[in-house]
Automatic annotation (TrEMBL):
Protein name as catalogued: Uncharacterized protein
Keywords: Membrane, Transmembrane, Transmembrane helix
This protein's record includes keyword Transmembrane helix: yes
Keyword check for Membrane: yes
Compositional bias annotation for Acidic residues: 292-301
Spans through the membrane: 16-33, 154-175, 187-206, 218-238, 244-261
Region (Disordered): 271-301
């Protein structure tokens, strides 16, 4: 096809050519922005991991010398407290470690240090493993990871196209209401519930597929639940009469997600290993710490 024929075709199909050009520009723009955004999130996670590990490593040395009761100078006590206080500013510090550091800073009880050292070592090993997995995905991705890294930036364009379709659908539903067409109330209800269900599915499916967030406990289950809720909307293809029931099932499963994501408040449960300390204290009070009755002692004598 020669250049003149291309020009003739473009002149005959101006609207189609303009729409195609705008779609291509939107696709390339969203692809580039999405790819840069994901790379920026990965760099941010690496920076947070590096800062957390540096703070934990700085506190590990003074803490180990204190636990093993090595000969330390007088300033080591202040150094340990300063390093532990600095750990509280770590981006990826857990609530367990945060509470243990606060408890030691408040009472300066050396009995808390062995448990604090174990927790600090466990958190450091977990962050090292997380950093290795993140670096492996960036620098040495598997075949599936490499393919997904190329496909994932396309998702914003696909979801933008789906939302554009939904806006046209919403405009049609509003016109049907304003014009006052003779559509049955049941059919109108089905159409609106189907529209709400599809929008709700898109809002749940987009963050579940895009990811980019740090993996925490229960995140995989909530991600799978979001995808399952979104896939339920495919039942609309079977019959629109099921739309109210599908939307109700989606809402019910969505509220189930709140129950799965709910955590017991940190202050209402002891940190790991604190049960033994509590039991020892209660046993000590029951055996030797309770006040004795002088009258009972004299009667027994």
């Amino acid at each position: 096809m020669s250049l003149s024929e291309w020009i003739t075709w473009l002149q005959q199909h101006e609207r189609t050519a303009l729409a195609s050009f705008l779609a291509l520009a939107l696709f390339l723009g969203l692809y580039g922005v999405s790819e840069r955004k994901m790379a920026r999130k990965e760099r941010s996670r690496l920076d947070h991991l590096r800062i957390s590990l540096e703070l934990f490593s700085a506190a590990a040395g003074p803490l180990m010398r204190k636990v093993h009761k090595l000969e330390t100078a007088s300033y080591e006590e202040e150094l340990l407290s300063d390093r532990l206080l600095a750990c509280r500013a770590a981006p990826y510090i857990t609530a367990d470690l945060l509470v243990q550091i606060g408890a030691y800073i408040n009472d300066q009880d050396p009995a808390r240090l062995p448990l604090l050292q174990k927790t600090l070592e466990r958190e450091s090993e977990r962050l090292i493993e997380e950093r290795e997995n993140l670096l492996s995905g960036i620098e040495r991705p598997s075949w599936g990871q490499s393919l997904w890294q190329q496909v994932r930036p396309i998702l914003p364009f696909l979801f933008a196209s789906a939302l554009l379709f939904c806006f046209g659908w919403l405009f049609k539903l509003i016109i049907d209401l304003s014009v006052g067409t003779t559509i049955e109330g049941r059919i109108l209800l089905n159409n609106w519930t189907c529209f709400v269900s599809v929008i709700f599915s898109l809002l749940l499916l987009y963050p579940a597929l895009m990811g980019g967030r740090r993996k925490v406990e229960g995140a995989a289950l909530l991600q799978a639940l979001s995808i399952f809720i979104a896939l339920i909307s495919l039942i609309h293809w079977i019959s629109l009469d099921l739309s109210p029931y599908i939307l109700g099932a989606q809402a019910l499963l969505f509220f189930v997600g709140f129950l799965l994501a709910g955590n017991k408040p940190r202050r209402s449960r002891p940190f790991a290993g604190h049960y033994d300390q509590m039991n020892n204290e209660s046993t000590g009070r029951a055996t030797g710490d309770l006040p004795t009755d002088p009258e009972s002692e004299s009667s027994t004598n």
